[in-house]
Amino acid sequence: MASLIEELLNVLEQENSEYEILLELSKQKTPIIVKGDIAELQKITDEEQNVVGRIANLERKRESVTVDIANVINKDVESLKLSTLVQLLAKQPKEQQRLAVARDVLKATVNAVKSVNDQNRDLIRHAQEMVSFELNLIQAMKQAPETANYNKGAANSGEMLGISSSFDAKQ
């Protein structure tokens, strides 16, 4: 059992390290999103994908260790949470303290990542809204008002003011 707890602690600490890397990458993305530097944003996103892959591997390892612990202590793995495990380690205060600290640190790091990612998501959404607004503005400019030109029958000819809608891709 002690070796399983030690293995769980190691996995949790490794996960926290990866989440800290993810947090730094997320923080680096914020000014890049503001600048609109798509190439640099793509580089950071690629790095994030690598970190997320490592986190997924650690998650699978943590789940496996948790199943092993649940089998040893004869508990249902679905109901075995870290907080429950911390309580079960009451007779081993050193391991109990380490597990509680590891859980709290990981939780704080994950919450920080979530917060920065929410901020980045909002920035991206605002950038998309701005691009949409600008496209609508450009389209509206192309649809100039009708001129007050009348034909021989005194009816409005319906001609538009001259903004050409053609686009020259060679320029």
Summary of the model, kept short:
The chain is built from four helices and no strands.
Which secondary structure elements does this structure contain, and how are they paired or packed?
Blueprint: H1 2-35, H2 38-73, H3 82-88, H4 93-142
Helix pairs in contact: 1-2, 1-4, 3-4
Task: Give a verbal description of the structure.
This protein has 171 residues and is mostly helical. The chain has a single domain (2-142), classed as Up-down Bundle (Methane Monooxygenase Hydroxylase, Chain G, domain 1), CATH 1.20.58. 74% of the residues lie in helices and 0% in strands. It has 4 helices and no strands. The protein has helices at residues 2-35, 38-73, 82-88, 93-142. The longest helix has 50 residues, at 93-142. The chain is elongated, with a radius of gyration of 29 Å. The N and C termini lie far apart (71 Å). Mean pLDDT is 85; it is low at 162-169.
